[in-house]
Amino acid sequence: xxxxxxxxxxxxxxxxxxxxxxxxxxxxxxxxxxxxxxxxxxxxxxxxxxxxxxxxxxxxxxxxxxxxxxxxxxxxxxxxxxxxxxxxxxxxxxxxxxxxxxxxxxxxxxxxxxxxxxxxxxxxxxxxxxxxxxxxxxxxxxxxxxxxxxxxxxxxxxxxxxxxxxxxxxxxxxxxxxx
Length: 179
Known about the structure:
Radius of gyration: 19 Å
Number of strands: 7
Structural class: alpha+beta
Largest sheet: 7 strands, mixed
Order of helices and strands: HEEHEEEEEHH
Number of helices: 4
């Protein structure tokens, strides 16, 4: 893992000749996350990148902002990997990347202590390419944050006694004789 201050990388999607351009970008994106190398984002992202995901506190600007966010997540999930989980779709201007992210939560994140539980979640990245089409310009990540919270033990599994107890404490099911 490297510091966010230096975001230059040996990988350059614009000069790579392997595969279709969107496949090269997708491979580079997944390699950056799985390789835990913040510098690798510079090879696939535009300098004025705009990035959003459910874990980011606010929308992120620039490769350095994404690098800091990734390093924060890598500290919480030091063994995290990302792999393709379906067909990548591109129209030349937009790119959709279905992925599976897996890792063990062994570090704290946003004040939450490590759960030491395994997380495996599908994440879909909706990407807009810069006008030249050679780098990611706008990226939004979508995943089931409720299911992730259940897997990490932050909230109880639906239908369990713990789940029903939480609902009762919140005022649901206290009145009425329903079954």
